[in-house]
Amino acid sequence: MNFTVYILYSESIDRYYVGQTENMTKRLVFHNTGTFKDSSTKAGIPWNIFLEIMCVSRTQALAIEQHIKKMKSVKYYHSLKQYPEMIIKLKERYNN
Does residue 45 sit in helix, strand or coil? Predict the structure, then answer.
């Protein structure tokens, strides 16, 4: 199975959200329809995909998601998007 680490952006609240999933299409629908009543993303509808990172396993996806969240930096998100080699290094670092 393929897993995706994703960064969403909401223009309406100028915020980013980092998560992981095995079905990006379905997860984006969940974020944009308020499927989960207490979701922290409900206030930011609509969300747009800012970046997707394809992973080989859930373990790798969870590790990369946690790494990105620990960075707590919009500049880091933009660097990941601008410099694909950073994503390659992350995948190598968190290769099962």
Answer: coil
Please report the beta strands in 1-96, taking only residues with DSSP state E, as ranges in sequence order: 3-10, 15-21, 48-55
Domain count across the chain: 1
Question: Could you tell me the residue range of the domain that residue 71 belongs to?
Answer: 3-93
Cα 63 from chain centre: 12
pTM for the model? 0.94
Give the model confidence (pLDDT) of 24-59 as tens digits.
Answer: 999 999 999 988 778 889 899 999 999 999 999 999
| CATH code for the domain of 57 | 3.40.1440
Distances (CA, A) of 66 to 9, 11, 13, 21, 33: 18, 23, 23, 13, 25
User: In angstroms, rounded to a whole number, what is the distance separating the alpha carbons of residues 73 and 37?
Assistant: 27
